[in-house]
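Q: What would this chain look like folded?
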Amino acid sequence: MQKLVNGQLVEMTPQEEAAFEAARLGTLPQAKQRMRASLSLRRRRAEAAGFDHLGSRFPSGANVVSAAALMAAIDGQGGPFSISVETADGSIVTMNAAQYQAYRRALAGHVKACSDRASTALQAIAAAQTPQEAVSVDIDSGWPA
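A: My prediction, written as structure tokens:
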């Protein structure tokens, strides 16, 4: 069997290939650390990917979560309330207090779903007994749309 090593095809026996792959994966702690780092990036991408609400797609990055938390304090002051929120495509949706409260709940639900998915993957990574098991944990599927 041939394997690409440093840009060159190298002939390897099955045993040599197994040893090569084991060395590439590193130790179990190294493989787990790489997977946790990759999972962290994947979670941030999922959290920032946006969420659907009121028939529109809304952004959901960290700045949106912070702004929603600040507006919740203002909303709690009472009186008439109206806010315009930009959707992912740049349109503007104006919401009253009840709609904005539902928007914040939808945003929180999206972030929680991302957290739950990451937690499941972290448990699988922690349970891995070999570097091969650690790197084969699926961190790409199952995220909220």
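The mean pLDDT is 86.
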